[in-house]
Structure formats: structure tokens, C-alpha cells
Specification:
The chain is an alpha+beta fold and 654 residues long. It has 19 helices and 25 strands. The chain has an eight-stranded antiparallel β-sheet with strand order 11-12-13-14-25-18-17-16, with no helix packed on it. A five-stranded antiparallel β-sheet has the order 3-4-5-6-7, covered by helices on one side.
């Protein structure tokens, strides 16, 4: 990795963290020479309880069988590769996207960020999380066909053979260990009645599986993400450690791991999520991921006598309130911040179609919330797998409470606000505005330079959208674009981002939100906020934006202010959904999106131009899934201003 990255990464650390990382590096070198490695004692045969007392069986098995058969044919669904022809079992250290085979060297000192060495690490790690193991185990659980249990045996044996502890890229990241343990635990319980457990000749296989569990738990216990890296990665590590320790309480260390992980996991969940329910990473996808960690880990802990506090479950419920509030009537949520499309456990082969709706369905049953069930539409297979048929039976015949508006309109801690009218009806207008921090901790790894941006939908049809994420470790030009101010419905000054990107997951000087004022009454809604992202420019520049929604006329007025000295270039970006056709006139743009028309009139003195699918520099793109992008119409309204400037963009929603 380039020296410059290390210098920038060090700049995000304090002295305590630097000392901690020096000790960790020393620990890794000792482990490389055999000191401090996992040395499991003989395990007992103890097994903890499953996450639900009676794992349901009365599903339509056909989608599970079809998905399992595809896996046996070597077809895996990996991001943009659908399907990826990996073979069965796959080559566990070969990146399917680039064909690069990661070296089988000591994992903790392997630079997994180096594409030349390991390929695209996102693709390589994804199928090593063993989501497919759960699908195979579900197919056995529902059909009792031995070939699916045998496939689980073959998949795991090959993984153990090709990933000897502690060598290779699959012994490099504690987060990957944590998520793998979660999938192993679910598969273990689904397979308990299979030949893998009843055949005495399989005892060696079970012993090998338990040994790897111990090595995983030991690895996580000694290599967790602390200090500036203590974001969702730490939650995933602690989740895997706790679930691993309660599912396999086979060693004296298991109790210590469970107690430690239980205590730290709850503390971190409450720390990493604002009291209003917004996750501090300021990224909707990771908000869902953290909620999923809390849900699954909470169910495992509760089933094994280690329930979390009332405050923990209340925080999770508030997280679901936030998702319900920003979700439009068709189930769309804004793509604020990073999204990597990874799921923790694939409870249904088609689960990824609408993860947030699925989460609301499960939460509606768990918290006895008919309003969340109404927003979700109906409980799905994930809810049944997690909570059992008894939870569905309790709500059978209930009429979900109708809602005239979102549960909440204002999330002042997280900085998100909902404007509009006729919520959760076929005629709704929903505007979700971002007036929150850039991200979490000193690196704000998953935040975007999107201060004071917003999204707009009408009747569940997306009109003005957030551009998404597209890339992570690879393709730095595209990574930088999708995080930039230009990729959001926001104002840019002098061609610069509001916050300064210093690496793919690093930020330098960042914009701070000030002067937030949100009001709503019978006539409409108003949100005003400012940020100091351009104070670094000569003379200092201050940017403010006010959104005023007129409910009776369905007009959104966007008033932008720039307080500055001297001349500056101002650009306002507007990103339209991919099914919108946009035409320009002298001072306006008209977007036709099926049966909805959006007329946008920009401030006098500025000029507008349409950009679609431009590659150098990137502009006019949307990414709705990781490693997938599509061209969209982007309107750029720009001009030179001198001194203080104020202009209003009027958006008529027809």
C-alpha cells in the first residue's frame, strides 16, 4: 500500500490509538512465529439453544431447493456477478471478479487492500462468509434430502482444507470471522437432525468444525476494531464472538468470551446509534446492517439466558421507526452514505430484494407494532425463520393500524427530516433531507459529502435520487465520485467537495452542520440549515439552504445562500431517477417520470446543462447495487457569483 495512505491514516489517530496499533503489530509478528496462537483444548459436546425455540418447517421449499441446486451447480450470486460460476466447492482464495489468487501467507500481515495481491477483496470475502451454507442447510431442513446435508459437509471440509489457520486472506479480518460464525451457528442448528450429527463416522468432521470455531473466537478476541475503526466492524466482531460462544460453549474460554462480548456489544450498540434511532455512520445501508446485528444477536442471546437490557431493545425499535419514516409508500429508502449490498445471513434466496421492508416486518412482530407491519406489507420468510410460527399466529387476523403520516418527521440527533404530505398513501409526496454529520469517528468511513442534500418521491415513484455508492477498494476515480458533493442534490462551490476526501474510507476537513431549524404546520414544512464546509476557502465561505414545502400547491422551494467575499463559482446538482426523461428550456427543466411531471425552475443569473453518463470526469450516474451503475440525467445549474449570493429553485410536483 502507498506510503501516502499510511500518513493520512495516522493523521486520523491520536497518540493512544497509535500506541495501541503498534502493540497490535507486535502481537501479529509474535503470532507469525507461533506465539499466542489458538490452541484449543478438547471440547465438550455442549450446544447452546437455537435463536428460536421451534425452528419452523412449513415453508414453500421450492425457492430454497432451487437456490440450493444452483449452489451445487457452482452458481453463486455475488454483487454484479449474478450468477458467478465458481464451481462447487469454490476455490476459496480466488477472487472471481479478477481471477487473482490470494497468497497463502500469514493473514494478519497480508495487505488485503492491495488489488494486485488479492484482487477485489469485496468479492473474495463475500462467498467466504458462507451465506450459501445456510441456504443448503435450509434446503435440508425443509426437504430432508441427504444431498443437501452432504453438500454442507463438502463445502466446510473444502474451506478447512484451503484456509489453514492462520494463513491467507480469510484469516485477516475479524469482521469476516464474526459474520462467518453467525452463518455457521444458524446452519449448525438447522442441521442438528441430519446425518452429520447422527453418524458416528462424522465425529471427526464435527470436531474439525468445532476446532475452527475456537480458532475464530480466539482470533476475534485478540483482534478487534477499536479506536477510529470502532464502527459497525466492531459490532460484527462482537456479534460473531457472542453467537459463537453461546452456540458452542465447549471450552473454558467460552464463558469468558460470551460475557465479554455481551457486555461490549450492548455498550457499542447504544454508543453507535443516536437516541433518536439514527445510526451514527450516517449511511442507510449500515443503519440496516447494525439493526440486523442487534436483532439476530439479541435473539441468540435471549434464547441462551443472556438477554440484553430494555434500553437495548428500545434503541432497536427506534432504529426501525427511522427506517419506516424515511421509506416511501413503495418501499424506497434514500441511498444516503455507503452501501455495500452485503447481507449478514440470507434467510431467503430473494431476501435482498427489499431488506428494509423485511426488517420492518420482523420488527412489527417482535415489538407488537401493527404500524410497522402495515409499512412492511406482510411478514416474510425471514420473519418466520427468526421468530417462528407462533409469532405470526399472535398477529393472525389483526388489522394493521392505518397511518396518515410517518411515525416521526424529525430526527434531530441524526440530522434527518421528512417533509411532504399524504404519507403512506398512493398520493404521497415524501422529501427526506440530510442535515446531519458527515459520519462516525475520526475517519467517518462510510459518510458522503452530502450535507443539505435531499431526495424526493411522489406516489412511491423516485424523482430526485441519491446517486449511491458503486465502488469500495477498487476503481478510486469512481469511489471518489460517488462520495462527492457532485453526486448528490447539493450545492458545490469552486468545484470542491464540502468535505475533503483523503482516501477511499478517509476524510480530512469535514463540513459541520449548524443553524438547524425544522418546522411543520397545516400549510407545509420548512427546514433551514447551514454548513461550514467551505470555510477553508480564502475569506471563508458559508453555505445555507432552506427547504419550504407548500402543501396546498405541492411546490418545493429550495433557497440556497452563499456568504462570501470575492468571486466564486456556484454549482447546484439535481439527479433524476433513471426512468425520468428530462428536457431543458431557458430557465427550467421538465422531468417526465411515467405519470408524474417535475418542473424545476432555477435561479436567475445561472444557466443549466444536462449531463448523462459522462465518464471523465464522472457525472450523471446512479448505482442501485454494489459494482453496478447506470446513466441518469443530471442537471447542473451553475454560474459565477461575486460576494453574497442567494437564489431559489422552485420544484413543482405535478
Amino acid at each position: 500500500m502507498k506510503l501516502g495512505w499510511y500518513v493520512k491514516r495516522l493523521a486520523a489517530m491520536n497518540a493512544v490509538e497509535i500506541l495501541y496499533r503498534v502493540r497490535r503489530a507486535g502481537q501479529a509478528r509474535l503470532e507469525r512465529h507461533g506465539f499466542g496462537l489458538a490452541r484449543p483444548t478438547t471440547p465438550t459436546d455442549a450446544t447452546g439453544n437455537a435463536w428460536v425455540k421451534d425452528i419452523p418447517v412449513n415453508f414453500d421449499a421450492r425457492p430454497y431447493v432451487a437456490a440450493a441446486d444452483a449452489i451445487l451447480a457452482g452458481r453463486f450470486n455475488l454483487f454484479a456477478m449474478r450468477p458467478a460460476e465458481l464451481g462447487f466447492p469454490p476455490r476459496w482464495n480466488r477472487d472471481p471478479r479478477t481471477g487473482t489468487v490470494a497468497p497463502l501467507v500469514f493473514g494478519k500481515t497480508l495487505d488485503y487492500r492491495d488489488e494486485r495481491l488479492v484482487g477485489d477483496i469485496k468479492y473474495l470475502w463475500e462467498f467466504n462468509r458462507h451465506l450459501e451454507l445456510v441456504t443448503l442447510a435450509q434446503a435440508w431442513h425443509l426437504t430432508r434430502q441427504p444431498r443437501y446435508a452432504e453438500a454442507c459437509h463438502e463445502l466446510l471440509q473444502s474451506w478447512f482444507d484451503e484456509n489453514p489457520y492462520p494463513l491467507g486472506v480469510n484469516w485477516a479480518s475479524s469482521l469476516e470471522h464474526g459474520i462467518r460464525l453467525m452463518n455457521w451457528a444458524v446452519a449448525w442448528h438447522l442441521l442438528r437432525d441430519s446425518v452429520l450429527f447422527s453418524d458416528p463416522q462424522r465425529r471427526e468432521f464435527l470436531a474439525r468444525w468445532r476446532k475452527s470455531v475456537y480458532q475464530h473466537c480466539h482470533f476475534i478476541s485478540g483482534h478487534r476494531s477499536y479506536h477510529s475503526s470502532a464502527n459497525n466492524h466492531l459490532l460484527g466482531e462482537l456479534s460473531g464472538l457472542l453467537i459463537g460462544a453461546v452456540t458452542w460453549p465447549c471450552w473454558p474460554a467460552s464463558r469468558r468470551w460470551a460475557e465479554q462480548a455481551h457486555r461490549q456489544f450492548e455498550a457499542e450498540c447504544l454508543l453507535q446509534t443516536f437516541p433518536d434511532g439514527v445510526n451514527r455512520e450516517q449511511a442507510v445501508w449500515y443503519h440496516h446492517t447494525v439493526a440486523d446485528f442487534m436483532l439476530i444477536t439479541g435473539l441468540f442471546a435471549r434464547a441462551n439466558g443472556r438477554d440484553f437490557s430494555a434500553a437495548y431493545w428500545q434503541r432497536l425499535e427506534r432504529m426501525l421507526d427511522y427506517l419506516a419514516s424515511i421509506m416511501d409508500v413503495a418501499g424506497h429508502v434514500p441511498a444516503f452514505g455507503d452501501a455495500d449490498d452485503a447481507v449478514l445471513i440470507r434467510f431467503h434466496p430473494a431476501q435482498a430484494e427489499n431488506l428494509c421492508r423485511s426488517m420492518l416486518a420482523t420488527g412489527g412482530l417482535l415489538f407488537d407494532r401493527p404500524d410497522l407491519l402495515a409499512k412492511a406489507g406482510a411478514p416474510d420468510d425471514k420473519a418466520r425463520w427468526l421468530l417462528g410460527d407462533s409469532a405470526l399466529a399472535r398477529h393472525a387476523g389483526q388489522t394493521p393500524a392505518a397511518r396518515a403520516q410517518p411515525i416521526r418527521r424529525s430526527f434531530p440527533d441524526g440530522g434527518y427530516y421528512v417533509l411532504g404530505d399524504s404519507f403512506d398513501t398512493g398520493d404521497e409526496v415524501r422529501i427526506v433531507a440530510d442535515a446531519g454529520p458527515l459520519g462516525y469517528l475520526s475517519i467517518a468511513a462510510h459518510g458522503h459529502a452530502d450535507a443539505l442534500s435531499f431526495t424526493l418521491s411522489k406516489s412511491g415513484r423516485e424523482l430526485l435520487v441519491d446517486s449511491g455508492t458503486y465502488a469500495y477498494h477498487t476503481q478510486p476515480q469512481w469511489r471518489a465520485y460517488f462520495r462527492s458533493t457532485a453526486a448528490h442534490n447539493a450545492l458545490r462551490v469552486d468545484g470542491l467537495d464540502q468535505s475533503v476526501q483523503t482516501g477511499s474510507f478517509l476524510w480530512g476537513k469535514r463540513a459541520t452542520i449548524t443553524e438547524v431549524d425544522f418546522r411543520t404546520d397545516d400549510s407545509g414544512d420548512r427546514l433551514r440549515a447551514a454548513h461550514d464546509g467551505y470555510a477553508r476557502l480564502p475569506g471563508g465561505v458559508r453555505v445555507a439552504r432552506q427547504l419550504i414545502y407548500d402543501r396546498s400547491h405541492r411546490i418545493l422551494s429550495v433557497n440556497d445562500e452563499v456568504r462570501a467575499r470575492g468571486a466564486h463559482r456556484v454549482e447546484i446538482f439535481w439527479h433524476f431517477a433513471e426512468d425520468c426523461t428530462v428536457t431543458l428550456a431557458a430557465d427550467r427543466a421538465v422531468a417526465r417520470c411515467a405519470d408524474t411531471t417535475l418542473t424545476l425552475t432555477w435561479p436567475a443569473g445561472l444557466s443549466g446543462r444536462l449531463v448523462r453518463g459522462q465518464e471523465n470526469p464522472p457525472l450523471g450516474w446512479r448505482s442501485k447495487a454494489y459494482d453496478v451503475r447506470m446513466p441518469i440525467d443530471t442537471l447542473v445549474v451553475s454560474g459565477e457569483v461575486n460576494g453574497d449570493w442567494e437564489g431559489t429553485t422552485t420544484i413543482e410536483i405535478g
